[in-house]
Write a structure and sequence with these properties.
The chain is an alpha+beta fold and 140 residues long. It contains 3 helices and 6 strands, in the order H-E-E-E-E-E-E-H-H. Strands 1, 2, 3, 4, 5 and 6 form a 6-stranded antiparallel beta sheet that branches. The longest helix is centred in the C-terminal third of the chain and has 18 residues, at 122-139. The radius of gyration is 21 Å and the shape is elongated.
C-alpha cells in the first residue's frame, strides 16, 4: 500500500502532458505522395548585366505549401555563385523566424540546396530547401 500512492501520483503526472497535447491544425493541402509539401507555383527567372560584365540573375523558387504555411525563396546569382537568398513567403512561427538566417547562411556557404535542416523548424527547412532547389533548377 505504501508504494501504491507514489505510483498513482507519478502515473497521473505522466499523463498530464498527454491530456494537454493539442495537435497543430492542417492549414494547407497535403497528399500521401508528397507528404507535407506540395508545389503550388512555378519558378520565375530574370537576368541583367551587372557592373564589370557580371550577369546577375534573380530567380524566385516555387511556392511550397507546408503544414505551417507557404514557403518561397528568391535567389540572386552573380555569375555562377549564389550571392543572396531572400524569403518571399514564410510561415508566421517563432521557429521559422529563428531558422531563416541559419538556412540562408548555410545556403551561401554550401552554394547549393544540400544543407542541413534546422532543428525545431523541420517543416519550414524542408519547404525552404525544396523552393531553393526549384530556383537553382530553373536557372539552369
Amino acid at each position: 500500500m505504501k508504494r501504491a500512492l507514489p505510483v498513482l501520483v507519478l502515473s497521473v503526472a505522466g499523463l498530464i502532458p498527454v491530456w494537454r497535447y493539442a495537435p497543430s491544425h492542417d492549414t494547407g493541402p497535403s497528399s500521401a505522395a508528397t507528404g507535407a509539401a506540395a508545389l503550388a507555383s512555378t519558378p520565375s527567372v530574370s537576368s541583367s548585366a551587372g557592373p564589370g560584365g557580371t550577369t546577375t540573375t534573380v530567380v524566385s523558387g516555387s511556392t511550397v505549401d507546408t503544414e505551417k504555411g507557404p514557403v518561397q525563396v528568391q535567389v540572386t546569382f552573380e555569375g555562377d555563385e549564389i550571392a543572396s537568398v531572400r524569403m518571399l513567403r514564410r510561415p508566421d512561427h517563432p521557429q521559422t523566424t529563428a531558422a531563416v538566417p541559419k538556412l540562408i547562411e548555410e545556403t551561401l556557404r554550401a552554394q547549393s540546396a544540400g544543407i542541413d535542416t534546422v532543428s525545431g523548424a523541420t517543416i519550414t527547412s524542408d519547404g525552404y530547401k525544396e523552393s531553393l532547389q526549384a530556383a537553382i533548377d530553373a536557372r539552369g
